[in-house]
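Sample intake sheet
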Amino acid sequence: MLESQKIQMRQSKIRQDLAGLAGKEAPTEDEVRSMEGLDLEYRQNETRFRAALIAEDTERREAGAELETRSDREWTEMMAGFELRQVALALDEGRQLSGQTEEIVTELRSAGGYRGIPVPWMALEQRAGETVASGTPAPISTRPIIDRLFPGSVASRMGAQMISIDAGAVEWPVVTSAVTAGWADGETGNVAGPTVFETTDRAMAPDHNLGIQMRITRKTLKQSGAALEQAVRRDMSGAMAVEMDKAAFLGTGANGQPLGVITGAATYGITSTAVGAAASWAAFRAAVTRFMTGNAATGPSAVKALIRPELWDFMDGAIWDAGSGITEWDRLAEALGEAVMTTNALAAPAGDPLACSSLLTTSAGGVAPIFVGAWGAVDMIRDPYSDAQSGGLRITALATMDVTVARPAQLELLTGLQVA
């Protein structure tokens, strides 16, 4: 029982006793002393009651915060115990899954159909603190649930959000109308007329399948032990991150690929500005200004830029102020929120003179500029024939994904940034 409830019950008993004593016309000396003692205790209990309420309110708030985060933390801790080593041995030797790995696989199977063993996306994150080849164990680092592709991927650093989809197509209605306000002209005048509220659906469909093959030799299976865990996760997550980053930005929309943000800029309605001049902070500043005037960004620090290393090389060598040695790159890096370099998600410089493109993004109102949808989990399927003669294990990982843009106003493409 809470302390405040105990005090309330005692106060009620004191009031009853005082009522009985106060009703007597000629109380004895003992009864008078009893009334004085009860009155003193009642006033002291009032102070104790207020203190108990304050303490219990703090405890309730802490308990509420604990309940709000407990499910996410428990799920994260459970994911931290998922072992890809068990999946590899189950595919190779038919070994029975156990522990948290078995529970997660069973849960994933109940949510969708898989030909092989389903592997959750979070299990592909490279974890710190696990047993490595040297055999030195360390505590597992508990990580929060995060909606990103993989740690350090270009898409995640540019603000892309990964959406987990169970089945079917998914769409987001995005407001496209411009609601306006107006003043009434005079005492009997009308305010601005009604504005139509319009939305555009941004749909993602499970039409694009990404496949990766991994070959694990018999020696690796027998010799690596716990080190196989990190090796499988590192190779698979690295290969998938490269392909997913490339598809998110440069996907052609043909031959099974999703339509990337840069390739499909016109289709998504993204503003594309042809600079046609030497790369400089002025070109990026103009794009940031367009973000701000369109209410998509509150300032330069809210904008991220995706650039090629050649662009950095050129701008870092372009001196803006000879006296101080400040370069065009110094001005850009100081103003923007982040500049992400990549050779995978942007096409190499081409033309004469050499020129490349850059993509700018911002998250407006907490809405990610790019959505990457992933259907279900990664399906791990064994190929029992290709490496049967050598006793090796060849597995194929299949993932279904798609890309879309929520609001085109949160992205802008700069083309023709000359780097020579």
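Comment: The chain has two domains: 3-78, 121-169+202-420. The chain is about 40% helix and 20% strand.
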